[in-house]
Write a structure and sequence with these properties.
Blueprint: H1 2-18, H2 20-43, H3 48-80, H4 85-113, H5 129-139
Length: 142
């Protein structure tokens, strides 16, 4: 969160020094790094001493990437639509907000779907068909 705010505040100053395009590319690189760290943390999730710090670093990169890219996207929206700067920035930010909300809703729906399978069978978790069969067998009265 702090790096998202810092990235948003420092984005314009960086753009004056190294160009807007490079700030955008740095933001994209930070986002790509965040995805790579998330992938690595999933591979080592059994070892929490490694996975947890990776997730903290990942969150920092997500914030920096978001802060840098969004501040530049606002500038690009204004540049690409000079006749309607206000509406272009408004629509961009509305779509960013909608994407943020829908990502959270999708996650909630996914978690809710882990409780009941397609045929109404109890699954317990979303670990796949083998785990589902084990959970159903364990829950049966026989």
């Amino acid at each position: 969160m702090l790096l998202a705010v810092a990235g948003s505040l420092l984005g314009p100053r960086l753009a004056q020094r190294i160009t807007t395009k490079r700030v955008y590319l740095v933001g994209l690189a930070a986002s790509l790094t965040a995805m790579a760290l998330l992938l690595v943390s999933a591979l080592v999730k059994a070892d929490q001493a490694i996975a947890y710090p990776l997730l903290l670093i990942d969150t920092a990169f997500v914030g920096a990437g978001f802060g840098l890219t969004v501040s530049v996207l606002n500038v690009y929206a204004a540049v690409f639509h000079p006749a309607g700067v206000d509406s272009a920035v408004l629509v961009l930010n509305a779509l960013l907000g909608l994407g943020t909300v829908l990502a959270g809703i999708r996650g909630d729906l996914r978690r809710a779907g882990t409780l009941v399978g397609p045929a109404g069978t109890f699954r317990g978790t979303s670990r796949g068909p083998a785990h589902r069969e084990h959970a159903v067998a364990a829950a049966s009265p026989n």
